[in-house]
Structure formats: structure tokens, C-alpha cells
Amino acid sequence: MTDLGNIKIKKINHVAIPINNRKESFSLYRDFLGLTIIPSMVDEKHVIWSKTADGTMVHLIEPPDGPGNDLVPFHVAFEVENFDETVEILKNSKYEITNGPQIRHDGQRAIYIQDMDGNTIEFATHNNIKHSNRVVDAWGYTKNA
């Protein structure tokens, strides 16, 4: 077997949790659990970014076509030390790249694969590589300031 190199995972960057309706789900995630809603660094209105007190991010993801439609699957994002090498390792692996590499508004880079059970796994750089002027309202809708 060929040595593909090593993906160097630093930490979990975020988890993405499927929700059906932000106005119902916020009663748990924002109001009861105390997650802080933060500006999203992607241009998808159905993706709500939030964080815990220690800064760990939780992305709440509504169905793109609105409540009552198919939920987007759960995924986990690993922050890696060696993003460019990780991309090459993934390209040469048996795992299909399903999205990316991509660059977000804050300069964070990301790439996605699926495991053998259909779970999405994201590999990303750290956040806030560059300044972003994005702002968020109380319901998680983000826009440029």
C-alpha cells in the first residue's frame, strides 16, 4: 500500500446539526443552551452559525428548501494543521471529495468527503484568517455590513 501521508488533525472545528425550523430550534440552542449566534461565513441562508462559551462552533442547518423538507445530514469538521497536504492526501485516497476545496468569507479553507457509511466529514483550516465585515441578526440571517 502506498504511503498517502498523514492528515494532522488539531481539533474539532465545528459540528453541524440538522434542524427543521430555526424559530422553533432557537428555543433550545440559543435560549436554553445559551449558544451565541454569530455571522455565517458562507452564503447559504439556511446555515446558522453559533458558538459555545469556549468558542466551539455549532452550525444549525435548516433544509435548503424550507421547513418540512429533507434535513441536511449531520457532519463534523476537523481543523487540520496541513490543509494543502490534506487536500492532496484526499485526492489520492479512496474517498470521494464531495465539495471543495473552498474558501469562506473569513479566509477559512474547507474540503469535504463522505465515509463508507455516508457521513460527511469536513477538513478545514482555522477560522478568521482574514477580517470579515459580516453581521448577523437575532434569527441567524447574515449579511455584509
Explain what you see:
The chain has helices at 22-32, 83-91, and strands at residues 9-18, 36-38, 47-51, 57-61, 75-80, 97-103, 109-114, 120-124, 134-136, 142-144. By secondary structure, the chain is mainly beta. The protein has one domain: 2,3-Dihydroxybiphenyl 1,2-Dioxygenase, domain 1. The strands form two sheets. The chain has an eight-stranded mixed β-sheet with strand order 2-3-4-1-5-8-7-6, with helices on one face. The longest helix has 11 residues, at 22-32. The model has no long low-confidence stretch (mean pLDDT 90).
Task: Give the topology, please.
Elements: E1 9-18, H1 22-32, E2 36-38, E3 47-51, E4 57-61, E5 75-80, H2 83-91, E6 97-103, E7 109-114, E8 120-124, E9 134-136, E10 142-144
Parallel strand pairs: 1-4, 5-8
Antiparallel strand pairs: 1-5, 2-3, 3-4, 6-7, 7-8, 9-10
Comma- or semicolon-separated keywords:
mainly beta, 2,3-Dihydroxybiphenyl 1,2-Dioxygenase, domain 1, eight-stranded mixed sheet, two-stranded antiparallel sheet, 10 strands, 14% helix
